[in-house]
Design a protein that fits this description.
The protein contains 7 helices and 9 strands; from the N terminus they run E-E-H-E-H-H-E-E-E-E-E-H-E-H-H-H. By secondary structure, it is an alpha/beta fold. The strands form 2 sheets. The protein has a 5-stranded mixed sheet with strand order 5-6-7-8-9, with no helix packed on it. A 4-stranded mixed sheet has the order 1-2-3-4. Helix 4 packs antiparallel against helix 5, helix 5 crosses helix 7 and helix 6 packs across helix 7.
Length: 245
């Protein structure tokens, strides 16, 4: 589910003495020490930590990371100092803009580096494949609105590449966001059609599974069964969006 693992991003202006770290990751002491060594090796210090969202694979180490660095941790919700939409962050000459992108989770954020036209997306857009919008914290209405927001950024040229929470850097931000929107719309139509068939006059007999499980078996038949539990949560979010729960 995390591809090669969680990406921890270290951001700093050339020649600056301070850096921003985005998503220190799970509670892995070896990883935290490796990031600290990387920062110290460049003669810098961590001045600010940002979280794209509160899932453990991105944020579990945040309290320990704050102890190690002495730097504040900022996010939105889950007890954190809320970051405002469009807020401008300036650290050591590095500028970042806060872009709310709820949907994968209620507290999901992206961060734009205007000077580089790079968008850090957490799990809103991945480096490979598509993300899970898992009911109930995941909300498809919010997610589609967030993709529209990202489409405007990529369409205007403000964001040309994506630095995701998992997987490689995406060089074609616009094409990838467009694919994400198209994929979601196609899945919604597949789920709608499956529900109509499962509830229609020629519906197959019920087999004890609930509607979401039966939709998964139809729509996600080509997906490895190991990820069906995640697919089920995604289907629940889709059913909720379609008013079919």
């Amino acid at each position: 589910m995390t591809l090669e693992g969680t990406n921890t991003w270290v951001l700093g202006e050339p020649g600056a003495s301070e850096v921003v770290v985005v998503d220190p990751g799970p509670a892995d002491e070896g990883h935290l020490r490796a990031v600290l060594d990387h920062v110290a090796g460049s003669g810098r210090r961590v001045a600010l930590t940002l979280l794209t969202h509160g899932h453990a694979d991105h944020a579990e180490s945040a309290p320990r990371w704050a102890e190690l660095t002495g730097a504040p941790v900022r996010a939105t919700g889950r007890g954190h100092d809320d970051l405002a939409a469009g807020e401008r962050l300036l650290v050591g000459g590095l500028e970042l803009l806060v872009v709310p992108t709820p949907g994968h989770t209620a507290d999901s954020l992206s961060f734009l580096l205007p000077a580089e036209q790079v968008l850090l997306t957490g799990d809103t857009v991945l480096g490979r494949g598509t993300t899970v919008v898992a009911h109930p914290d995941g909300d498809l209405t919010s997610y589609l609105e967030s993709l529209d927001r990202l489409s405007r950024l990529t369409g205007s040229g403000a964001a040309t590449s994506i630095a995701p929470g998992h997987g490689p850097v995406v060089p074609d931000a616009g094409g990838t966001v467009e694919f994400y929107v198209r994929h979601r719309r196609e899945r919604l139509e597949q789920v709608r059609a499956a529900v109509e068939r499962l509830r229609g006059p020629e519906a197959p007999p019920a087999d004890g599974r609930d509607l979401a499980d039966r939709v998964v078996a139809e729509v996600y038949a080509d997906v490895p069964r190991a990820v069906w539990p995640a697919a089920r949560l995604s289907v629940l979010a889709q059913l909720d969006y379609l008013g079919m729960l």
